[in-house]
Structures are given as C-alpha cells and as structure tokens.
Amino acid sequence: xxxxxxxxxxxxxxxxxxxxxxxxxxxxxxxxxxxxxxxxxxxxxxxxxxxxxxxxxxxxxxxxxxxxxxxxxxxxxxxxxxxxxxxxxxxxxxxxxxxxxxxxxxxxxxxxxxxxxxxxxxxxxxxxxxxxxxxxxxxxxxxxxxxxxxxxxxxxxxxxxxxxxxxxxxxxxxxxxxxxxxxxxxxxxxxxxxxxxxxxxxxxxxxxxxxxxxxxxxxxxxxxxxxxxxxxxxxxxxxxxxxxxxxxxxxxxxxxxxxxxxxxxxxxxxxxxxxxxxxxxxxxxxxxxxxxx
Amino acid sequence: xxxxxxxxxxxxxxxxxxxxxxxxxxxxxxxxxxxxxxxxxxxxxxxxxxxxxxxxxxxxxxxxxxxxxxxxxxxxxxxxxxxxxxxxxxxxxxxxxxxxxxxxxxxxxxxxxxxxxxxxxxxxxxxxxxxxxxxxxxxxxxxxxxxxxxxxxxxxxxxxxxxxxxxxxxxxxxxxxxxxxxxxxxxxxxxxxxxxxxxxxxxxxxxxxxxxxxxxxxxxxxxxxxxxxxxxxxxxxxxxxxxxxxxxxxxxxxxxxxxxxxxxxxxxxxxxxxxxxxxxxxxxxxxxxxxxxxxxxxxxxxxxxxxxxxxxxxxxxxxxxxxxxxxxxxxxxxxxxxx
Lengths: 293, 339
Description:
A: disordered N terminus, B: seven-stranded mixed β-sheet, disordered N terminus
C-alpha cells in the first residue's frame, strides 16, 4: 500500500503470535556465572566504564549490581523480561549482558566512546534490551504492558523492572502502579533501588518518599523489604507472585564496594582518573575476599 | 401553546423533542466520526485477535468494544502517559494496541511517552486522537488540539492521518492497521457537514484530488477545512478561476509526487487546516513544494486565541481565520500578485 512504500522505514511486521525473541534471558548463549561472581564483575566493569572519557553514573550502577546479578544469574528464565527503568544504571546492565554473551565483552571498552552502541542510557535495538530507557518514569508502565500481554497470552513468563528511588518522584510511576494493583497482575516484580540519594542529596530531603512500603501496599502490591546486597535474601524477595504484583524495596548503598564513592552525593556521576580506578578496583577486591557481597 | 406550522419548524431552530426536526438537521451532516471509527475498530477486532482496545476512560468504548471483546478491552483510567507506555509493552509482545484519548492529551500530556516508548521503538500502536482542532467546542481550550500535528509530524516514524470526512474513517483505519509501525489518527468530536460531491476513496499516503483546476491550488486536511476549500473553489469558479483541491489526509509521510503534480504551474498554493499555522499542514506542504517549485504559499490556519467565548466548531474556526471567505481571499491575493 502507498504509505508503506513511501513511508518511514520500519522493521518487518512481527509474526501473528506474540514472540519472545528479544528476551534478555537467553541463557543458552553462554554459561551463566554465579550471582556473586556476576555482581563482582559488574562492579569492576562499572568502575572501568567510569574511568572512560565521559565517566558514568557510577553510584547508582554500583548500588544495583547485586540485584541485577541475582536477576540475570538466577531468576530470569528464557522468555522472561527485565526493564531497566533507571536507565542511568546502564553500565550495570551492559556488564550483565556481556557476561551472558548477549553483547561482546570487549564492547564494554567502547562505553560512551564515539561509534559505540553503548550510550549512557540503554539505546534502541541493543540485543537483550526490550526498550530504550533513560527518561525516568517509563519502565513500570512498559512492564505493566508486558505483564498484561502475558496474561492475555495465558502464559507464565515473568516481568521484572528496576526503578530508582528518586525516580518514584515521577507521577507516571504511580499511574502504572495503580493499574498493576487494580488488575492484580501476577508475575510482575518491581524492584526499587533504595539507595536514598539523588543528585541534590537525600531523597527524604528533596521530596520524601517514605513510608514507601505503605505506599505500594496501598496501591494493591505485595511489598517485600530486603537488604539489597544480601544475595540469598534478594533471590527470595525477587520471586514473582502468582497472585499479584510484587514491590521489592531493596535497601542499598549508593557506590557500594568503593569507600570513596559509598553514600556520597558526588558519586552519582563520576569520571574516575586512572589512579582512582586502581583504588576502586583494589577496594572491590577486598569486598570480594571479605565475602561481604 | 399551539405548534407552528411544519414549514416554520424546518426553517427555525431544531426542536430536540421532535424526532422529525432532529432528523432534518442530521441530514445535512456526515456520519458521526467516533461512531464510524468504533464500527471500523470492531470489524478489525473481529478479524484480528492481536487488536487490543486501550481506553483512558474516554466513554463509548466500554459499552461497545468492551462488551463485545471484554478480554481485549483495557481501561487504564485517566492516565494518558501510562496509556502510551502500557501500549508499548503490549505491542512489544505482538499485540496491536489501539489507544484512545483526545488529541490534546495524546500529543502534549503524553507526548514524551508517545515519542520514546511507542515511536522510538517503532511499535505498531495506533493512537486514536479524538477532539482534534477546536471540535471540542464548548468544552474549551483545555480540550482543543491546535498543536498536535506539529508534534506528531516531527516524530519521524509515526504515520499521521487526518481523514477528510467521516466517510473516510473506515478506509483510514483498515489501512493504518496494516502498517508495521506506529500511526496517529486525528478525528473530530462531532459530525460535520458532509462535503458536496462524491467521496473518492482514500489511499493512505496519496493525496486525494477532489477538484481539478489550473489557476490555483487549495490543499486541505480535515472535514471543515476541506469543506471550506471546496466551497471556496465554487466561489472562485464563479470568477472564472480554476482551483485544484487536494485532500492531504496523510501528513506523514507526505505524498510528494501528488502534491507537486497538484501545485505545478499554478499561481500559488493555499493551505487550509484546523491547526496553528506553524508545524501543521501548511508547513508539510511548504517543505515539499518550496524545494521544487517557485510558487508562493499562504496558510489559512487558526490564529489568535480561540476559547475565550463559547462557540460551535465552525463558528470558532471562522472567528479565528479559517473560513471559506479566508480561502477565497487568499487565493485571489495570490492570483493578483501573479505575473
């Protein structure tokens, strides 16, 4: 038809039946590392990316490293989805994708460099990424759409999303939360990286979010609080429920594992000089040997 | 109180209590755009199980689509941002969501969600935007959409369609359905007067030639602008001026060849739209024509500040620069300055 020939370029139409070829959870490509080793590698990769020419959102990428690792190493099954609503934690996501072989490991070296696919926020058309994100307040609604699709298909694929705590100041988050609660969507898990900080300081000093658990509960969600750096506890807390949406408030430390970044407002975004990259990697080595992760 | 004779009834204001009088007024009008759309959607949904009706509590879908296909009717509530994101999620898994809100809310309130989640991902979401232009009439400025075509036209992968009149809606919907990417369909709120003459079929991406004329070109989109253009062509014909009338219902992608063929060799082009002069039909035409032809272009578009006094759609347009007379004046002005 006329508009198709003169019109915008589109990918070919999707087949009639909903498909899951874009799922981030194609673990068949490479053997999945353990959550602990994956988390440690994420932290190291994040530091290396922050040592690149543009720096990186290092604090919020480190705070969610354990959570992202548990999802990719242990929970995401083929067909399941993960939406990184706090798109500025892209370095953590890229590391997980590389560790699973969805993108080449050496591609991480190009992070934010000219010619790379790896922008500071997840781009369109990256393998394993269903949606470009970065503007806050989009991921939960996208995940609700995925979960509604799953219910319509009669399937049991799970949908996970990770939100920043500061992101909860976006009103669109609550539009989506209201709908998910009303529909009692099973298989949907929204994790909040509750590191307590945003660009100008503490979330509670900017626009207070507490009591966060009560807010989600009032919207019809099951709420679970968890230490966001306790891997076995995360594994339990992140399990979806067949009876409705689950909000996981993961208490985390911004800049986790690197003392000069931990709980520092300035660690939100940093460009690390080589000496600091070495210091940070050494600190991460101690974190691993102490078994603290 | 004694009733006036029937003849006086017909000439006077319609009496809502009198079915015959109501019918008389309706006879001058084309089909109701939203009813025509719903009929087209129900036909599609019966044939294609991928069709999902996403509603933002607009009214009129819950008791039509919702009753016929309850599993595929999802009312997200009064939450237009979420309407777009949820649609993107559904489309990513192979469904074809039809999202419903007013043009003003689809493009401005939910604009970023439309841009990033729907259009950015090139997902086959169909945005059905009612109350286009000033068709919301007495509802007032909050419900007017005079910027939506500027917003949607710059979203590069979004097909933008403004059916010429309600008789074209069915064809527009069924053709939009076949697109692999996203689409935006702008509809009015209420029935508008049926344009004179036959209604040639609509083919998305191809301008409709509604009248041939060698002297000047009138390009319009939307029911009342098209009506004004056709009325103006009739007036101009009385002066011996031949006006070519094009219905440019698809504003993106624009029918470049059809537009150039319809404008070439004429003294100038007048565009007529229910939109601000910036970013809408006039600019869409100018972007094509100015690159190829040395013809002047005048925009008949909404000026000033509609929404300070209650008026019906047509009156509001006429009071703000969009009328048959404005088109005639613009065309005559172009011809007067022609060498």
